[in-house]
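Hi, here's the filled form for the chain we discussed.

Project: internal
Contact: R.S.
Residues: 96
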Amino acid sequence: MVIEHAMLTIKEELVEEFVQTINKAFPILSSSEGHLSHKLLRNKKKPTHFILVVHWNGLEDHLDGFVGSANFRKWDSMLRRFFDSHPKVLHYIEHD
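And the returned structure, exactly as it came back:
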C-alpha cells in the first residue's frame, strides 16, 4: 500500500466552493483502479491549506492508473482553477 499526501493551497476567495467541488469530484477518485480510501484535511490555523490523503494499492495505481487516465483529466479540470499554487504530492509507505 502507498499513501499519497497532496498538499493543496486554495485561493482564499474560492475555499468554500473548492470544498463543495472536491466533494462532487470524489466519486471520480473512488472509482479509480487501486484506490482504497481517501480523506481531506483542512488546516485549522490556515484555512486555505488542505492535505488530501489517498491510500492506493500501489504506486503504479496512482501514477500510471490514475494520473494517466481520463478520470484524472476530468478530476483536474474540475479542481485546477482553485489552486493558488501547484499541489505538492508525496508518496509514503508504512514503516515496520
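Let me know if anything looks off before we file it.
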